[in-house]
Amino acid sequence: MGIEMSTDAKIFIDGAAGTTGLEIRERLAGRAGLSLIALSDADRKNAAARKAALNAADLVILCLPDEAAREAVTLIENPQTRVIDASTAHRVAEGWTYGFAELEPDGYARIAAAKRVSNPGCWATGFLAIVSPLVRAGLVPADFPVTAGGVSGYSGGGKSMIAEYENAQAQDYTQSVSRIYGLNLSHKHIPEMQSHSGLAHPPLFEPSVGRFYRGMLVEVPLQLWALPGKPSPRDIHATLAKAYQGRPLVKVASLEDAAAAKTLDAEILAGSNGLTLYVFANDQARQARVVAAFDNLGKGASGAAVQNMNIMLGLPETTGL
To answer: Residues 24, 72, 122, 304: which is the catalytic one?
Structure first.
């Protein structure tokens, strides 16, 4: 069936031809201690070959549409096969561990012990990085009306959106610089944004997509005067800095660096696997804009999957990143 195997940890990427799968393969290429189970083009569409690969692997990374991801899980009969699902299918599902290691104090331990890990959505990654520590610390009440927005590179829309933008460019047709979407207020990432932040209500989410391939900004504006404890920008910053202290892939920019910034480019961390938080503030108005900058294909997708894989295999989390 075209399966290539060795005595190393055997990894099978189901959906390796998609955007996320290709990026994961790039990060795993040439790594010692790993063996990728590879199927031929024909075998990728062969149910028996896929099932054999799924059950031969020590760890499977699913890079599939939601329904296909759910089906793939049902094909796994080997109790030793562990799974990372990069789709939306299992992000709030019972029995699955949410794969954002830095989000909770016990996140690393839970992922290391898990059989089933759901990779976070890119928008949810930025939102949760900001909101979850603030809710946990009591600075933002669970029932507070939270709003979030931002802009992502068009690669976040998958093959169809990539083709739309790149075909338009090839035809010398100018797409809009950015456009808003999710206008029915039911974006697929909202359930995990609410569930894993501890919020009592869904956030009001205002996503947009820009005319650039990769990179993103996620922003949560805060009227500090409206919060019960009247926190200062320094309180917000200190809470975030404490939450991510010692976490190599999540940084919190200093208040001084944030104050010195005139603009923030959505592509600032394109091509990287990390995430940086900024607290932009106006002390007099008692307002803050808390922004997460990262690569929607890095910490927002493939980089996060590789980080989770490393943790599950007992390797340093940044290996290959």
So the answer is: 122
